[in-house]
## 1
Amino acid sequence: MTSAGTGAGRLVDELCGRWEAAVAAPDRGDAERAIAELYEARGWGRPEAVVWLDSPLAGAIAARTLLYGHEHLDPARHPEARARWVHAATPRLEGAYGTFGGPEPSSFEEDEPLAARWRVPAVDSAHKLSYDLDDPDVRAVLGRVGEPAWAVSTAVAHRFKEEALSPGDPGRFAAVAARAHERLLRDLRPAFPAAHWDAVSAALRSCAAEPRPDDWKRWRRVWEAVRAPDHHALLILAAARRGGVPATGDLSARLRMVPAVGWWWALGGIAVVAAPPAEVHTDQLGRLHREDGPAVRYADGFAHHCWGGGLVPAGLVDPGWSAEDVVRASDEELRGRAVREFGAASYAAALPADRIAPDLRRRAVDRLGWARFAAEAPLARVAGPVPDPGDPGCALTLHDVPAVLLGRDARVVVRSGGAWDGAAILVPADAADPLEAAGWLGFGAPEPAPLPELLTRVWESEELQDLLAGLDCALPHEHVEAVHLYCGAPLYAFAGHGTGGTYFLCGDGPRRPVLYADSEGGYQVLGRDLEEALRFMVSADPDGRDPEEADDEAAEAFGLRPLSPDEYRAHRRGAEAMAGALALVMADENTVYEYRPTTWFRC
């Protein structure tokens, strides 16, 4: 593909514009025609019925009824109706598994609840379907037509599976199930001859009347057959690389159906379609998020409360947990709240309390706000209030933050009055002066401090870069996943480790702490600035906790003196005092990395 402004670029704009118009006003009638064309393009014949449901949960209930409802037909009295039912409800699985353009896997992965996606049609070998971020047309499509958050969120993808297996709200499940069976009775009639309908409708009513079955193996078949929404950007890129959307066929049908279609099931003669959510809310990072209600809500009331992309109990958002709850409730109690809401088959029931509770506490504090939390908990005051000379009318107060919140001790500076009234800044656990602590990462500075002179020297010297390579540290580098500092300060990746980890500078202050993040969810603070971090890296551990020895050659080249044993131990204490304030968060899942004080080492 070529750059925007060329013929290909204009085609991309046209395709994106058509897509945006279709999403703004989804057409179910056209989507049904597109589903029929998709069936025909795959040689299946047209579906005899399309059943529309209001949520993935309703769709799963309807699909399960169709997969097993024939058991309510007596094979001796209704052999033809039963045989027709089985044929109409057999899942169409051809070509359903695997990644775009990838090989067909030999079997369905046991832990994957969503069977899959259609394949993007093969394109000319000269135009491989990939995310070449240097291609302006790829950037244009991804910028305008990303996958919606509800379609890619792990929380949404798994919640309807969990709710079906073990409803957190049995009353809601019953109401959704009743509505799903009403839709089946209304919409399935075209799929069966009139002579069979009385028996089929009686069987459907029997399915609706039976207690909700708990057989996970049967639900498993429902998950194997469900199809996730298509990857919108890839469809548009495929169309652009083919020179436009063909008048008929697989690609044309899929581009027309997906604006109106969420999770769906392609059965032999019946398509079961769950509509997209009626309401979706996201934060500035595009993650599911809402501060006063569900982030995702379907037309039948099935909903998810999310904070920063993470699924949370509804009460954490509305009305919000109290400060006392956050500080005093045990891990087991907080986990129990999540299990009661989400059900015994949920992620909350499967994970240990000490894995779930910290993220729930952090999100509950975010919901309250740190200033309110500090007042209501209350947090112990360390120092202040003292006036802030840079913000007339503002007073700064330094408080202790219990380790239960961030997994490490920390402190927080809260501003009262002035331009940033109510703002709060996480600071190291050994901070003593509110005014000094408030600016430790450059918060409030008119502009960032210059980059460390030592880093500039490294960038300009191949010799120093070679010495860094001896420490298994290479320039430049990009971390394996998007991360950010929980405190909100900027984070700059400047080098990488041979094991896949990344070195970061934190903040915009005159001393930028150095943080190392490994590739498996752990992080470590290496120093209050780059020089201190490098002195630590070239020094020997006097207590033998790390395998490295002093690197005198590197120390001399950088003009640094290795730390003495006493300095090394003091450095460790200082680094760990910063760990809570520099908590590292995985952006997509909004979960905090684990602090591992020995995750960095030299190979």
Note: Residues 296-367 form one domain.
## 2
Amino acid sequence: MRKLKLIYLAPLLAVISLFAWALASPIGAGPDDDFHLVSTWCAVVDGTNCEPGVSADTRIVPETILESPCFAGEPDQSAACQEDFDLTGTDMELTDRGNFVGSYPPVYYWVMHAFVGNDIGTSVVIMRLVNVLLFVGLTSALFWLLPIARRQTLILMWTITTVPLGMFLIASNNPSGWAIVGVGTTWLALLGYLETTGWRRWVLGGIAAVGTLMAAGSRGDAAIYTILGIGAVFVLTFPRAKEHWSKFARDAILPVVLVGVCFLFFALSSQSSSGVSGFTSGSPSGGPLPEDADPAERLEGFGRFAYNFLNIPFLWAGNFGEWGLGWLDTPTPSIVTFSTMACFMAIGFVALSRLWGRKLFVVAGAGFALWAVPLYVLTQGGQIVGVAVQPRYVLPLIVLFAGLLVVTRVGETLSFSRLQVILVVATLSVANLVALHVNMRRYIKGMDHPGSNLDLGIEWWWDGVPSPMFVFVVGAVAYAGLLAIVLRAVAWPSLAVASASAHLDQPTDTLAAPTIR
């Protein structure tokens, strides 16, 4: 227990580091937040926060949430344009921009609507904090409930996929945050469910159900990603011996039910039609291409297909900082992209040392989906990489791919030297620090005002919140401390070896056939 004392600080440090990201952006800073905030306010048409419109696809909502992205597309413009906004929500406006006809699954909006209050700014921050607590709570529960050998998979999966876009989205008002958390949580909770017995098994099954509801209830594409994750778990755990088949069939009832839930949400979400038929062809707005359009946008047929096929990795790189944050208008320095992708690839190559037939199959399948899904959507919509399909749409799939890549057989762990662990901690800490600072500076005073001190020249900041520099320093230090603690626990040579063998000493209800052998 003396060796594990530091790990008790991990959930607190995770909340602090993510909450710093939650405060780093103003109202409406998330991609399409005008749509998502309106949808949250109108999840229930209560006549106070949201009123019926003139037709079934319109509503009357607070003017502030509609106009909150007043800075979108203008990186040199701070969020000072919100200075005169009515945060009480008494100024109302008619809109047709919202989830009024079932474009998105409704669960995310229903849950977030519970936190709509009289002050719009306070409501937005509370929703972000709730999303942070959900992620940290589910991940902490998995850490303590999974067999010890699975903790490394859990920590490495989130470590190499969340900076910077994951941190931004998980701590935002965008349903993509739930998609990321739900997909990553469901497959690993189900793996633990099939590998344990007793009360732990049922709690893990409950966590898998929560993860599925979060993913499928937030985005239609996340429902399909969740099904892929469940399928990967089946492949990894299906028993070889015939005498175990009947037990596996009973255990598979819950995963099959969860697959049915995913299909139901996907079928009821009109958003899923974009995945089948593609986004609107032509320009992002659906109109004719402008004279100065990228020549690549004029490609047709095989030329367009080949261009997209060869450039799909650029879409993945957007999750590691290559594309901008927020409304894609907050560029991050190249050191962020280089650092995060270097850590992903370094740990991925180490993970390939623990490869067997079933793992090779599911990793190859997830990799194929990462390439094929956006390629299909772009082809169907007649568009190219960089238009319509955004990196956040495939981030849940990247999380799943990373998790399958670092998974090991029970009793095995990935081996890292102390120097490797230190380098990963230092590299990702710097990447998070730089991305957080740039994101805060963009809204506090605009990208055209360089400087390391965020307290100088403040044009926008939250009322009643400590100074920007305080939030930045505390958040960056908390994230560095979090990485140091969790990676030391699962990847530090002496502790990792101890953990790999410690699964044999766990209570009997934490181990059960079928396990990954």
Note: The radius of gyration is 23 Å.
